[in-house]
Amino acid sequence: MSEIIYQSAKSIAQDIRDKKVSATEVLEAHLARIEEVNPVLNAVVQMATDRARSEAKKADESLARGESLGPLHGVPFTLKDSIDTEGIITTGGTLGRANFVPEKDATVAARLRDAGAILMGKTNTPELTLAGETNNLVYGQTNNPFDVTRTTGGSSGGAGAIVTTGGAPFDIGSDTGGSVRYPTHFCGIAGIKPNSGRVPRTGHIVPYGMGAVDSLTQNGPMARYVEDLSLLLPIISGPDWKDPYIVPMPLGDPASVKINGLRVCVYIDNGIRTPTPETIAAVNAAAKALSDAGLAIAEDVPKVIAENPDISNNLSGSDGRAWTRRLLAKYGTTEMHPWLERRMAKATELSSSEYSAMLEQVDAFRSDMLSFMENYDVIVCPVAAFPALPHEASLLDENVPGMSYTGTFNITGWPAAVVRGGTSPDGLPIGVQVVSRPWREDVALAVSQLLETALGGWQKPPR
Questions:
Q1: Residue among 8, 22, 82, 155 flagged as catalytic
Q2: Positive or negative torsion for Cα 420, 422, 428, 432
Q3: Which of 174, 215, 265, 379 supports an S-S bond with 196, CB 3.0-4.6 Å?
Q4: Active-site residue flag, 316
């Protein structure tokens, strides 16, 4: 049973359907793994053990009657603590919600449970998800399974840590500037930020209806295997008739994508921060694997990225982060984590005329990026300029530019996946970012699947 914790969610679901293993046995194996690793990692911050055991028992009884609960029948999972869960404390990492128990599930949580999945617990996140490190005043710091002195990234750092160790087959993260992709990269798993407008944010700590910054935040799956991203994304996608920005756009099947002949733009340096040699090697290995598979490779980089190095932060902070203050007031938080205080202090409030000019700059950036993408189907580039840094180092001014490879695609709203592409000299995972045209998550996932097969994908951490 010990090896089942390292299987994909897809294969676990199949084994349960085939009665090779029971939902109860699968759940107990994962609960035991969480108990084993969590004291060191601090990745899972709330457990729903009794409810999960009850649901696993019911799942087994349903299957015995020949009844399926859905494509995730009996598969256990964890969920980022920024996503509301009925009956389970959901803090979003902020003190004002330290004891908040939602009355209903967020849309993504409800859809997963309706598909038969069993929620085991909640995973750690920084306050309001607004940091590239995972630490907060409610639960403290999450540690990287490959080196506990290193960051897991943020804001879905608890998710990245517990998934890579086999404590959960999958989790759902959220991504406003890289919060699915950083932990995926730092922890050596797979993840995708879907296209803006694909997955509802209803019940997320940073909800829909955020005005100019609304399009930045997306919910997306994180798992050890790309095939699980392809399984999960259709389940959580589509309008919920609450989030007004969700578009009923068809979602393509990655298995139907014709890989051969896709046009791939590869860039190693975005002109803001040059990556480490091992990061460069990982992107080059990805480019070679794609070339060997018959994809057309070109080295190119959108000049507009280096010309607008602060565009993502400018959009988020140009109202003086008044939107963040409104959220803190809404949740009753009076004491912020120092990282969030620092971020708030750095924000510069613009005049109305300056603000409208900034919005015009954002739209011009989006247009320039769209024109660049006319020549390509896929962009392959780093996730960050370095592997996991020591705790808090990624927040230092000298390292912030190295985290500039993800925010570009929150501004454009395009799909962006991550798959492990290499390993640093000190054994840390290195991810590769795979970006596709608008609404073509199927292409990003198909290319990521190819890279996972060619480069090896997820590897067991030392603990």
A1: 155
A2: negative
A3: 215
A4: no
